[in-house]
């Protein structure tokens, strides 16, 4: 790390502390009384800024692109738990198996089958969350709520892929009441699955809530949130080629 802290690092540090505090306050106020893991969404954020927030307490980060994760990986603080939250491409899954502790965005059986193949070769287990298309948006990735039960039954065939819970992004809602409804519905789905069909999971994860709505998500039962811009600011978009990397 460079000696001098840049203004950008200091700002990210301050934002991180404020975001963690807001999440803790929301957790105290919520009826669920549970710990909430803050997984910072770190797309386009340079390693030195991520590491600085880690020095202030950040434990978990989520990357969106395999290529970008690989570029940053060696420079990232070993204390950080690295997770994957982006679109899965089957031909790049092999790069994730040794690098991340959790894939939050599993949304197809073909990706699960490829993960099973890779993990059984290495005799290891990959933890995943099933991505739910909670807003039932056309063209959006994820499993529809009504298809989850059948999807989970099929997942049981994959011995080296361990389903640890659900993740959702949710639609962009003009009205707060709308996102509350969607988060509540996703929580209900999560509870139905794990209470009635307990998939051998001790502490199932419900990952929902980003910068604009993580307090609402915590109020609805999320135990993991994924704020990005609230911590790192609005960052310049990457070009299209990098987006697909
Ligand atoms: C970018 C991203 C986030 C963070 O979004 P912000 O609005 O910047 O907080 C969270 N989850 C996923 C899957 C993302 O791609």
Characterization of this structure:
The chain is an alpha/beta fold. Helix content is 41%, strand content 16%. It has helices at residues 7-29, 47-55, 66-73, 93-96, 109-122, 148-155, 176-196, 214-219, 229-232, 240-243, and strands at 37-41, 60-63, 81-84, 102-106, 126-132, 161-168, 205-207, 224-225. It has an 8-stranded parallel beta sheet. β3 (81-84), α4 and β4 (102-106) form a beta-alpha-beta unit. α1 crosses α2. The protein is globular and about 50 Å long. 38% of the residues are buried. Mean pLDDT is 92; it is low at 240-245. Pyridoxal-5'-phosphate binds at residues 41, 43, 64, 85, 169, 210-212, 226-230.
Key structural traits:
globular, binds pyridoxal-5'-phosphate, 8 strands, 8-stranded parallel β-sheet, 10 helices, disordered C terminus, 245 residues, alpha/beta
Secondary structure elements and pairings:
Elements: H1 7-29, E1 37-41, H2 47-55, E2 60-63, H3 66-73, E3 81-84, H4 93-96, E4 102-106, H5 109-122, E5 126-132, H6 148-155, E6 161-168, H7 176-196, E7 205-207, H8 214-219, E8 224-225, H9 229-232, H10 240-243
Parallel strand pairs: 1-2, 1-8, 2-3, 3-4, 4-5, 5-6, 6-7
Bound molecules: pyridoxal-5'-phosphate.
- Report strand %: 15-25%
The total beta strand count reads 8
Note the gap between the termini.
27 Å
Q: In which order are the strands of the major sheet placed?
A: 7-6-5-4-3-2-1-8
**Helical residues, percent:** 40-55%
Low-confidence stretches: 240-245
Bound molecules: pyridoxal-5'-phosphate
Order of helices and strands: HEHEHEHEHEHEHEHEHH
Largest beta sheet, briefly?
8 strands, parallel
Kindly state the mean pLDDT as a whole number?
Answer: 92
In DSSP terms (H or I, runs of 4 or more residues), the helix count works out at: 10
Radius of gyration, in Å, reads 18 Å
Shape: globular
């Amino acid at each position: 790390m460079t000696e001098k802290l840049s203004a950008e690092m200091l700002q990210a540090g301050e934002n991180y502390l404020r975001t963690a505090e807001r999440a803790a306050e929301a957790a105290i106020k919520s009826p669920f009384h549970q710990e909430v893991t803050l997984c910072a969404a770190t797309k386009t954020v340079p390693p030195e800024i991520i590491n600085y927030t880690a020095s202030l307490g950040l434990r978990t980060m989520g990357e969106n692109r395999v290529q970008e994760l690989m570029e940053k990986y060696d420079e990232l603080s070993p204390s950080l738990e690295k997770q994957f939250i982006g679109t899965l491409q089957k031909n790049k899954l092999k790069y994730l198996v040794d690098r991340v502790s959790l894939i939050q965005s599993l949304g197809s059986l073909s990706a699960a089958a490829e993960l099973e193949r890779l993990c059984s070769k290495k005799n290891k287990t990959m933890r995943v969350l099933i991505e739910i298309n909670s807003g039932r948006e056309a063209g959006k990735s994820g499993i529809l709520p009504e298809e989850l039960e059948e999807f989970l039954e099929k997942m049981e065939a994959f011995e080296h892929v361990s389903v640890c819970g659900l993740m959702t992004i949710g639609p962009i809602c003009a009205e707060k009441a709308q996102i509350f409804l969607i988060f509540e519905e996703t929580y209900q789905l999560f509870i139905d699955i794990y209470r009635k069909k307990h998939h051998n999971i001790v502490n199932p994860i419900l990952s929902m809530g980003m910068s604009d709505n993580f307090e609402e998500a915590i109020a609805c039962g999320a135990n993991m949130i994924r704020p990005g811009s609230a911590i790192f600011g609005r960052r310049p978009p990457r070009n299209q080629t990098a987006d697909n990397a």
